[in-house]
Amino acid sequence: MAQLLITGGAGFIGSHTCFSLLEAGHNLVVLDNYSNSSSVVLRRVAELVGLKDCKRLKVLQGDIRSKEDLDKAFSAGEEPVTAVVHLAGLKAVGESFNRPLDYWDVNVTGSHSLLRSMQRHGCRTIVFSSTATLYGLPKEVPIPETFAVQPINPYGHTKAAVEQLLGNLVNSEPGWRIACLRYFNPVGAHPSGRIGEDPSGVPNNLFPFVSQVAVGRRQELQVFGADWPTPDGSAVRDYIHVLDLAEGHSAALEFLQREKPQLLILNLGSGRGYSVFEVVRAFEQATGREVPYRIANRRVGDVACSIADPRVAQELLGWQTKRTLEEMCQDSWSWQQANPLGYGCAE
Ligand code: WQD
User: Per CATH, is 3-345 categorized as 1.10.645.10?
Assistant: First the structure.
């Protein structure tokens, strides 16, 4: 097993990925600036994995844009870091229109700073958190990795820019093993209800908003458009359980460690789409709670339908999603019921 550095390991994707990587036997150093998370998250991950000592999970508060913080992180483990899972970044599409400088600074300058540190520390294996958002308006679905990269928002542009940099790197310097994982819609939570999605402020995304309506924290869901060219008029997305996504990171890492140096670009999705109305119905059935909603205007930047073609990840990694929409709803609800205010007031 390996000594890994996980950037952004205290976030929604990060905490579940740390859980999966610890379960797979790896030792982790986590670097997180807690801009969108808190230290309690990783204490709960350690509890879920049943860690007896802190040697296997070292946590540093710090920023990927700081050379000093990165040098500390690379030296904090029991062994030299052999691979990085890079999850730190800003990821709200709507917010990125208002904060492009922050998004380019954190996502692009931060990734550049991390790659420089990896070079300095002789580490050339990285799994990078990319996004399906960089496909922009897909001309058809399902979407294979060969589709044009044509982002339509600053967030997508930053992820496309880092993928471009990683491509330049793998061609310029021998020995780099790189996987860019293009997430579709990560949702759900660990079934224990101890870790989950805890967006700050009003949730941008559908699942946390529906969960907060169900628990009574929000009054009603706004459905952004019921006049899309889809079977029931509401927009369709490829939802993937966050634990399936986390296991995809573990599988990609194992592939990189056993295969020759290369750049891998993979969709992480189920290949199955669900509409907003189907999600609302599934959530009500899974939880027994009503989710009142009203139809609102379409949201700027939305697309009618986004569904992954996940065949490359299946063929190369032997990975595919296992968890159902019902499990995504049940696990979201377990988390929300146990943490109605998120980690906010957690000890
Ligand atoms: C899903 C559907 C909305 C909220 C997200 C992230 C992006 C990327 C992919 C990581 C859409 C509708 C939503 C609401 C609604 N993740 N909706 N009412 O936009 O597909 O993208 O996942 O890289 O960062 O933004 O996900 O959950 O926001 O929306 O009707 O209150 O639900 O219109 O059709 P999206 P989402």
Answer: no
